[in-house]
Amino acid sequence: MTEAENVNIWLLPDRPARGPKPAYSRAQITETAVRLADAEGIEAASMRRIAAEIGAGAMSLYRYVPSRDDLIELMIDHTVGEIEYPERPTGDWRHDLALLGHGWRAMWRRHSWLLFIRRGGPSFGPNQIRIMEFTFSVLDVGIPIDEILSLSGLLTGYVESAVRGEVGWREQLESTGMSMQEWTAKSHPLVRQFLESGDYPMLERVVRDARQPHMDFDARFRYGLDRTLDWIAGALPPDRFNG
């Protein structure tokens, strides 16, 4: 491992201090990597592919980004920087957390590869630190720091789980090459066999009510987010934040 590879990427200068005059920037490399991952999946964002996209030699990029793990950290922090929220808490904790919830969801849906990557280890870039500071400040209402950490994790955990469900369902359906109607028709004989056994009354209810309008992903997300915020409300001081 080189000296640069043994240092947190956020402590390294953006451009090499020695060697030829820098022709590229770490931001350019990161933006190209994110664009490739969005279009073709995280595996497409290799140093070789990024170099080809920006017209550089693959080995030259390691002067800016020493390792694959560093590239992943840069990509994560770049995408987190897309989430919009006020500079400071508004004083309405529910509004602020709902805004964050919708922001996290929109970001993860744009960059669904984020949900399935493996990180080399915990590392927090400037955008991640800023959003953590904002979230913790929203919840800084006289409760212990462990509760602040748990409640913020509850929010992001719900959002991540919801988006994983959406993305997973979409990708599974796309992998079959069938429409929703075609998939339903193919599944019908097996479902009917289960129903005829009489052992699955809830499944029978789902099938029976399938002709009724159901919540779409957006409505289901809002419902779950509201219930998550209700739970958080119950954990906050009632004299100030339970309304």
What is the secondary structure topology, with strand pairs?
Elements: H1 26-40, H2 47-54, H3 68-80, H4 93-110, H5 126-138, H6 145-176, H7 180-197, H8 201-208, H9 217-235, H10 238-241
Q: Distance between the terminal alpha carbons, to the nearest Å?
A: 54 Å
- Rg from C-alpha positions? 23 Å
User: Residue share in helices?
Assistant: 55-70%
Q: CATH top level of the largest domain?
A: Mainly Alpha
**Shape category:** flat
In terms of per-residue confidence, which ranges show pLDDT below 50 for 5 or more consecutive residues?
none
CATH architecture of the largest domain: Orthogonal Bundle
Subunit arrangement of the protein: single chain
Work out the number of β strands: 0
Overall mean pLDDT: 86
Number of helices: 10
SS content category: mainly alpha
CATH homologous superfamily of the largest domain, by name?
Tetracycline Repressor, domain 2
Major sheet attributes: none
What's the SSE pattern? Answer: HHHHHHHHHH
CATH fold naming of the largest domain: Tetracycline Repressor, domain 2
Total number of distinct structural domains:
2
Strand content: under 5%
How would you characterize the overall build of this protein?
- This protein is mostly helical and 243 residues long.
- It folds into 2 domains: 4-79, Arc Repressor Mutant, subunit A; 93-177 and 216-241, Tetracycline Repressor, domain 2.
- Helices cover 61% and strands 0% of the residues.
- α1 crosses α3 (68-80) and α4 runs antiparallel to α9 (217-235).
- The radius of gyration is 23 Å and the shape is flat.
- It starts with 25 loop residues before the first helix and ends with a helix.
